[in-house]
Amino acid sequence: MSPAQETLLRRVEKVDGGLDSQDVATSLGVDHQAIVGAVKSLLALGDVISAEQRSSKHWELTGEGCEIAEQGSHEARVVSSIPEEGMPQSQLMKLAFGKVGFSKAMSNKWIRLDKGHEGGPRIFKTVEHLEDLVRDKLLLVQKGQASQLEEKEKNELKKRKLLSEVTVKSYWITKGSCFSTTITKQETELTPEMIASGSWKEKKFKPYNFEALGVAPDCGHLHPLMKVRTQFRQIFLEMGFTEMPTNNFIESSFWNFDSLFQPQQHPARDQHDTFFLSDPAQAHEFPQDYLERVRKVHSEGGFGSQGYKYDWKIEEAQKNILRTHTTAVSARMLYKLAQQEKFTPVKYFSIDRVFRNETLDATHLAEFHQIEGVVADYGLTLGDLMGILHQFFNKLGEGSTSQGWGQFHSFNSLPGNVIQFKFEVGL
Amino acid sequence: MPTVSVKRDLLFHALGRTYTDEEFDELCFEFGLELDEITSEKDIISREQGDTKAEGASDVILYKIDVPANRYDLLCLEGLVRGLQVFKMEAPRYRRVSPASSEPQRLVITKETTAVRPHAVAAVLRNITFTQERYDSFIELQEKLHQNVCRKRTLVAIGTHDLDTISGPFTYTAKPPGDIRFKPLNQAKEYTAQELMSLYKTDSHLRHYLHIIEDEAVYPVIYDSNGIVLSMPPIINGDHSKISLNTKNVFIECTATDLTKAKIVLDMMVTMFCEYFCFLLWENILEPTGQYVHSDYPHSICNPQPFFGISESTEHIAQLLTKMCLRSEVMSDGEQIEVEIPPTRSDVIHACDIMEDAAMAYGFNNIPRTTPRTYTIANQLPLNKLSELLRQDLAAAGFTEALTFALCSQEDIADKLLKNISETRACRISNPKTAEFQVARTTLLSGLLKTVAANRKMPLPLRLFEISDVVLKDESKDVGARNNRRLCAVYYNKSPGFEVIHGLMDRVMQLLEIKPGQGNGYHIQAADDSTFFPGRCAEIFACGKSIGRLGVLHPDVINRFELTMPCSALDIDIEHFL
Question: Where does the signal peptide begin and end (chain A) (predicted)?
């Protein structure tokens, strides 16, 4: 405990009410700031003292004001410096206080100016004694008796920049609830030594600030989009869907469009919506008999469809693109399934990147992820599709009953009554 | 999805009742449409150009409705109304009628047109009354069709004319541009075709279509029997035959490079507006190959039961289909339905399209939800399974996952990494919209460094990783390229932290259960790589194969990515570990 703190405590002990810190400072003859320091450190220890902040206004002499208090006001000095025979004006003006003092002295009628005097204008005293009121007032303030002056007088001196009003902050110190003249320092933390020696039982501990946050652990993070992907993947796996191999961003137009019955002049195959490759520009391998069947359905129809009735060109189908949907992979998988000796029911899914040549804006990127599911079996119905979607959203926990409508496409490469459904959700 | 903008009050008037916004939204939803926006002309202008410009604009409420791209019959107010009245009205039947008094009109197509725009179909609508709204709707439908199914007039172009100002038989032919001369729509004098090409180069609307015929030796043109030019498709009609509010009979011609589409378009134009006419007369068209009569309705037979999973009587389904403008009757066997497909529904080309409509009429939400009976055992793709496991552990090691673009600029994978583009086996995109999408990435490093650059203000050290695909050319694949799953990590701090990245690599190997050492284990040895600081780069070998690199990045690389601190990186191919 510092001497300032100790003295302060003793003072507070003696007094019934409270103390003003300014008074303490003056009576001890120390700088107010030292007392303030003592007050603050005492406050930190708990409720030893309580301090209320107060501010008071106080008149003080400025530098110029001090000078005048000592040596007299400018005008008085002007008068005192003029000898019996007077002084040339020019000479007076050379003096430091000359200019200011001259005009004031003239208005007080303490001097007079003889303009027509030979040798230039000359100044003469008009009074022998004068009362240097300004100086007197300033001396009063200096002595601390500013209250004796009227407001008007003080403001006038303030205007002449001889006085300034100073705000002084002080503390009103009173005894706190745990007042004592001795201070015990509080410990912050338990240490191994305290545990070993048992000394913690005698010590006082600083209270914790439970309002503050703790230290953030320095850990790595997973990307939020990928976390969602993991979640969806998990749901699919739980529902018995097998993951498709979608690790091929580059796809031929054949698998991406033609095998999915999208006509060759369709706008989605435009330069504006699809990224085409210049290198490698074309795919060079296709299952030939399947290709022929696709050609036929597009141009003439087949499998119950009228087709689009146009000339199907293989050059269009060969063009390589960045896939616009993972359905291209589904098409490949269904083709493979069709090659099997015996049909087995399957459920496939994938969640992977697709590319569309769109103008970027706040809600559209050129690359995004697509979730895709395919179910193939005999006797599937629309109700089954809705059921699966419903279960999916239930597991997601969205709680919403998904309302359905959709664009349904039929892929007719399998024989019989097999119907496949596709549902597409963009993420 | 195309968007159709209709005046709400007109729509309700035509539908015969008013709806609240919510009710209409639901009706749209059930029908497969989306009420995208409720606005007014004033709102639109206000949003685009500011409130002052919007003063005085119309306050009339507009509904903007999204329709499916292949439903050309819903592109105008008339079509929408007809579709929405599904639940009340009988499906209309369209009849072709011969003209009461005279011979049918003829359009003769000459062989010159095969060089430039071979096909044409035409029809006549008689006894029309146009109001301003119907006229606007008529013009707008043509525009919408032009934009959508006509593929901006390249496949089909529509021309409409006032029949009473012209006289048939009409001739569709093609002539050298210097020989074509007429007064085009809304102009004061006559021009030759060449002059018109230059005239319209500055027209904001028409200049986009000039290229379709500009460089051809002959331009298509349609004349009437008096040599008056009806139109020069696909550019502009003649002024002589233009339609006004007083027009009573309309001659519609569609010239095309795709005959199927031309017929679809003509069907649309005719069926949409026939409700305003007292008699619909739809007449013959001729081709040089012979007489062609517009086909009667195609019929389709289908058995809808298995599709649905609901037990509804076949009769009921037939009723539902009829409500969707697809007139249906149960056949004598009681199981199958015969469906008549009207010209408005060119999107119906397979039984499944019919079933889709039946489901819509039934209401998707009314179909009971079931789950498929067969159960299947799920399998993860091994590569994805590996990636998922590694991701978790890398995050546990204190690295943060990044997700970066697969497309980037050429500099990103070559110059900025101090490599030559020809070394990279990158796949190049032919039509990028910006330079940011020139190539498909061959390394994950560029994306990660760009991520660091975007996050310079974050407290150091920055530890990032990504496990994802890059694309490499590969002639052994059918498309000529393949993906490669890689793991890449960077450490960015005041000191390069090679030991940190090295430690991460050790950890990855530990997770993959590969011990340090030669032979079946892993080891690293010094290597030269222009991307890395000399003497601070190593190649990683596992089970005898090179799987990647790690090291401190070269200062030039750091500068080129606009970074300031030293950085070390790890880049390995994880497909080896499957």
Answer: none
Q: Where are the beta strands (DSSP E) in B97-225?
A: 107-109, 119-125, 156-162, 170-175, 181-182, 191-192, 219-223
Alpha helix positions (H), B274-380: 305-308, 314-323, 351-362
| Arithmetic mean of pLDDT, A378-383 | 79
The reply to whether residue B401 touches residue A226, judged by beta carbons under 8 angstroms, is yes
Distance CA A234, CA A395 (A): 10
Closest approach of chain B CAs to the CA of A36, in angstroms? 38
Interface test with A, best of B146, B345, B369 (most A CBs within 10 A): B369
Q: What's the DSSP call for residue B208?
A: G
Residues B340-371 have pLDDT tens digits of 777 777 777 777 777 777 777 777 777 778 88
Class of residue A219 by CB neighbours under 10 A (exposed 0-12, middle 13-18, buried 19+): exposed
Enter the DSSP assignment of A127. Answer: -
In the predicted model, what is the mean pLDDT of residues B67-88? 74
Asked whether the beta carbons of B157 and B233 are under 8 A apart, the reply is yes
Q: With contacts defined as CB-CB under 8 Å, which chain A residues touch B383? A: 245, 247
- β pairing state of B567-573 and B545-553: antiparallel
What is the percent of chain A where pLDDT is above 90? 18
**Pure H helices in A300-412:** 314-318, 327-339, 382-396
Q: Out of B351, B391, B479, name the one closest to residue A320 (CB).
A: B479
Asked if the Cβ–Cβ distance from B398 to A218 is below 8 Å, we say: yes
User: Which residues are bridge partners to A20 per DSSP?
Assistant: A172
Q: Return d(Cα B406, Cα A277) in angstroms, integer.
A: 14
Neighbours of B195 (CB within 10 A): 16
Among the partner residues B381, B403, B431, nearest to A357 by beta-carbon distance:
B431
Contact list in A for residue B402 (CB cut-off 8 A) is 223
In chain B, what residues touch A386 (CB-CB under 8 Å)?
A: 364, 367, 369
More confident residue, B154 or B279: B154
Is B260 close to A308, i.e. CB distance below 8 A? yes
Q: What is the DSSP letter of A188?
A: -
Please give, rounded to a whole number of angstroms, the shortest distance from the CA of A181 to a CA of chain B: 47
Residues of B in contact with A223 (CB under 8 A): 401-403
Two structure tokens written together for B575 = 């497909």
Q: Would you tell me how many other CB atoms lie within 10 Å of the CB of residue B260?
A: 17
What does pTM read for this prediction? 0.68
In 3D space, the residue among A279, A251, A269 whose CA is nearest the CA of residue B439 turns out to be A279
Residues of B in contact with A251 (CB under 8 A): 479
Backbone angles phi, psi at A126, to 5 degrees: -115, -20
- With an 8 Å Cβ cutoff, are A305 and B350 in contact? yes
Helix spans in A239-287 (H): 253-256
Interface-testing mutation among A219, A223, A309, with chain B (most B C-beta atoms within 10 A): A223
Q: Position of tokens 């990044």?
A: B402
Mean pLDDT for chain B overall: 82
Contact A242 B376 (CB under 8 A): yes
- State the Cα–Cα distance between residues A71 and A75, nearest whole angstrom: 11
Average pLDDT over residues A362-391: 84
Cβ distance of A305 and B349 shorter than 8 Å: yes
On the 0-12 / 13-18 / 19+ scale of CB atoms within 10 A, B558 is buried
